[in-house]
Specification:
Length: 412
């Protein structure tokens, strides 16, 4: 009986320790919040969260035991156990309240990768008619990025092809990125019947598409768009970019969405103007600087506050989008659910299209409308990100405060 009780006690103790470890490891190393937003970190019994710099850098006010940042600046949060055992510091960056100009214009996107992205692998038939897999046992897999060969930087697919052919079949030292970790391996090219040398890797160095510019931030001359990141069509992974361009787009065709078959906006970027330079491709959208503000054709007097998520309410709102060349309109939607504590993906709000004009034109939310700004009570509250495949009238939007934090973040 005692042995059984000891085993139960041991199991319960292990579960408790596991819960504590899980909570602590889920704390980020840094957080970004906006003025007026609460510093909201989950705690359990014994875990203490203390703001170290409440004076000159960050002022806080108390509201139902929550700490609410009332002044922009930087500071630290100390996480401890029973206020005695130090666990970790969390850097806090409070960004000032921001005004943006909602846009809603369709634009073209061109992205260029850091190195070349591996999107597939295949056997090679050598000049001896045997099948080879040079990449086998190297560690390289789909979704990895090759950044250098024999200490020579690889900029694009032409670079890779030339470097491999110049090797004349000699073993190559390849540097590549896998899950944000830089690794090295050796690989020996195979000579084909066409007298070319190949690695058996399918690679890509660029991507293009169409989306919606969400907002322009006048103080930094920056923009945010899409509300979600651009992923590679083959690997379904976020593309690690070296540079990119936003370009005006001419709408060619709109295919209406149906339940089970999302529609899309088709456009061309041929002979169009450059809007700006893309510097970030994140899971919460793409961001960069506006180089040609006239290409956006915006009303500079139409700026509005970015709403804190506590200000967002269920019920009526509008989205701005462009469905005819040179014509951006507002359409009514309904905010059905708000996931206030969601900071992990871009499904912050569930929305439904209610405006019959938009339903008649598109059938609801369609591809290309991602990034359409959402406005409620005269404030920018977010952007459209997804459509539900089984119901084209419904989809999701990301919080506006998340997009501003991504814009201000120093991370790529």
């Amino acid at each position: 009986m005692r042995k059984c009780l000891k085993e139960i006690f041991l199991i319960i103790s292990m579960i408790i320790v596991y819960i504590y470890v899980l909570v602590i490891t889920n704390y980020p190393d840094s957080i970004i919040i906006m003025e007026g937003e609460s510093i909201n970190l989950k705690t359990i019994l014994g875990l203490n969260i203390n703001l170290l710099s409440e004076g000159d850098m960050i002022e806080v006010s108390s509201n139902n035991s929550q700490k609410i940042a009332s002044k922009s600046g930087t500071g630290k949060i100390e996480v401890s156990l029973f206020n005695n055992i130090f666990l970790k510091d969390i850097d806090v960056d409070v960004v000032p309240k921001t005004k943006v100009i909602p846009i809603g214009n369709i634009a073209g996107v061109k992205l260029y990768t850091n190195g070349v992205l591996v999107v597939g692998m295949s056997e090679i038939q050598g000049e001896d008619n045997k099948k080879y897999k040079p990449y086998e046992n190297t560690g390289i897999s789909e979704g990895d990025t090759i950044i250098s060969i024999n200490d020579k930087e690889i900029m694009d697919t032409e670079d890779l092809i030339k470097t491999v052919n110049d090797s004349k079949g000699m073993k190559l030292s390849v540097e590549y990125v896998h899950d944000n970790e830089t690794l090295e391996c050796s690989i020996t090219p195979v000579k084909t019947g066409d007298l070319e040398y190949k690695l058996g890797l399918w690679v890509r160095d660029s991507a293009a598409g169409v989306g919606t510019v969400t907002f322009y931030e006048p103080s930094t001359k920056s923009f945010g768009a899409l509300g979600h990141g651009i992923v590679d069509i083959d690997t379904e992974q976020l593309i690690n970019i070296s540079s990119g361009e936003f370009i005006t787009t001419k709408i060619l065709k709109i295919t209406k969405g149906e339940n089970g078959n999302p529609g899309r906006i088709q456009g061309t970027i041929d002979d169009q103007e450059k809007i700006g330079t893309i510097v970030k491709n994140t899971k919460f959208g793409i961001y960069g600087t506006v180089d040609n503000i006239s290409a956006l054709d915006i009303n500079k007097n139409a700026s509005m506050d970015v709403a804190l998520r506590d200000e967002i309410k269920l019920g009526k709102a509008t989205i701005m989008c462009t469905l005819e060349n040179g014509k951006t309109e507002e359409y009514e939607i309904e905010i059905e659910k708000i996931f206030k504590n969601n900071n992990y993906d871009n499904k912050s709000m569930k929305i439904k299209v209610t405006d019959q004009r938009l339903i008649d034109k598109t059938g609801g939310i369609i591809q290309g409308m991602s990034g359409s700004p959402i406005i409620q009570n005269g404030k920018f509250i977010g952007a459209v990100t997804h459509v539900l495949v089984n119901n084209s009238l419904e989809g999701y939007g990301v919080f506006g405060d998340i997009m501003i934090k991504q814009l201000r973040s120093t991370d790529g």
